[in-house]
Amino acid sequence: MSVLALDAGTTGVTALIVSADAQIVARGYSEFPQHFPTEGWVEHEPREIWEAALVAVRAALDALGPDGDQPTAVGITNQRETAVLWDRETLGSPRRAIVWQDRRTAGLCDQLREDGHEPRVAALTGLRLDSYFTATKLAWIALNEPHVWASVTSGRTAVGTVDSYLVARMTRGLHHVTDASNASRTLLYDIHAGAWSQELCDIFHVPIDALPEVVPSYGVIGRTDPSTFLGLDLPIAGIAGDQQAALFGQACYEVGTSKCTYGTGSFVLVNTGERPVASSTGLLTTVAWQHPDGRLEYALEGSVFVTGAAIQWLRDGLEIIASASETEALAQSVPDSGGVVFVPALTGLGAPDWDPHARGTILGISRGTTRAHIVRATLEAIAWEVRDVVDLMVREGGLELAVLSVDGGASANGFLCQLQADALQAPVARAAQLETTGLGAAFLAGLATGVWASQEEIARTVKHDAQFEPGPRDDRAHRRWRVAVERSKSWAVL
Ligand SMILES: Nc1ncnc2c1ncn2[C@@H]1O[C@H](COP(=O)(O)OP(=O)(O)O)[C@@H](O)[C@H]1O
Ligand SMILES: O=P(O)(O)OC[C@H](O)CO
């Protein structure tokens, strides 16, 4: 027995085939285009996500080969918050998806805040009024593209996040669902009642009937249609937002256990069990997963928007590196960043500063500055960003950080892990299999279909293969970092 996991991330789709002994036995990957129509806007073409998913699954199946242990279920995990629209009949989209990184709704959020909506919205959702979240993007479409929105209110066009869209595609439009972990990122879901909220839908102009049915994070919700999904007829048995999936994939099942995933952004989540812990200083309260019996478990989250994406920008924007993996040796080729501090607020700032109007800042450049210094400053920035969020979790969430478990694409960079241990003054343990988002989706689907009998059984398979012990911390560098963060704030409205 094996499980297929589809991990639809921000920059590409990964397909994993995970064996019953929890090993990744085959994988496929396909990147899809990012669209930047204007400053601060980020869009995805839904069809391109779907096509990337098909390419990735095909590649994974080819890698597995006909004699490999064929998957018996599929789990889905995804970039969260991104707002997707599609026609219920044709599955075509009337407009591109507005991505979680898109900051076009910053002004709309300011207005809603001025109108006094924030306390109630935060109390119901555990989130904040920020352009990060789905409902603000839907409200923007409702207010700015009435012709598109008319098809939503008439019932022709469905609304959802990337998981819902993929399920619709995989089932030829038969199912319109999302799981509670994804729903909890929309600003439309009451995390205490475990249901869509009419009150929130009214605030954001969203017809509640346009939203998907909310299902538990594991349990069979339907089957893939072989005529549209590469001949595969599989139960869809797990769905979770990628950061919650990573929490599941790292087997953080006990209250107080935590992980940090380094991908496009970096997200620290700590399990708070069946108790939603409210935050007043910038952490998010979110659904970790919902059990098939309806029980909700929660997490406290620190969301850092741009980490691996800053590395991509060094590659594709500045063109000072050829590949992300080069950064490790380049950063170590200099003893320090030479006084350079880079705040990669390329799409505003998330936790702990929350400023959608912030933009990237590079300070401290001198005649002696080289690309190695800028690369090193970028890795240091990632470590400082995560440290600032963990500090908040320790102070506010009561997190006792004995060790930080890390995973995700950028955690392949051992030097980054070392910088992280130094910044935190705590050991960093790296998961043996870095793709914990996909693994988490596989575990959820496998739990629902008998591949694994229990969470305890899954937990026994999760291993860490490297531990980075903290060295000295450069407090002066952190002070400079905080000064640079302050300077980057409000830039887009100055
Ligand atoms: N060796 C590396 N050092 C630093 N960053 C890396 C490295 N390898 C990959 N990355 C970054 O990690 C990200 C990819 O990780 P992944 O977990 O696949 O992200 P996502 O799911 O967000 O698409 C990219 O942003 C890339 O720049
Ligand atoms: O694309 P990732 O893996 O960095 O994840 C994005 C998050 O889900 C955004 O909230």
TrEMBL record:
Note the CDD domains from the entry: FGGY_EcGK_like (cd07786)
Every Carbohydrate kinase FGGY N-terminal domain range: 3-249
The Carbohydrate kinase FGGY C-terminal domain covers which part of the protein? Answer: 259-448
The alphabetical list of record keywords is: ATP-binding, Glycerol metabolism, Kinase, Nucleotide-binding, Transferase
- Where does the signal peptide begin and end? none
Q: Can you name one GO molecular function term for this protein?
A: glycerol kinase activity
Name the SUPFAM superfamilies for this protein.
Actin-like ATPase domain (SSF53067)
Pfam family of this protein, just one? FGGY_C
InterPro entries in UniProt:
ATPase_NBD (IPR043129), Carb_kinase_FGGY (IPR000577), Carb_kinase_FGGY_CS (IPR018483), FGGY_C (IPR018485), FGGY_N (IPR018484), Glycerol_kin (IPR005999)
PROSITE patterns associated with the record: FGGY_KINASES_2
The similarity comment for this entry is: Belongs to the FGGY kinase family.
NCBIfam families reported in the protein's UniProt record: glycerol_kin (TIGR01311), PRK00047.1 (NF000756)
Protein name per its UniProtKB record? ATP:glycerol 3-phosphotransferase
Q: Which gene encodes it?
A: glpK
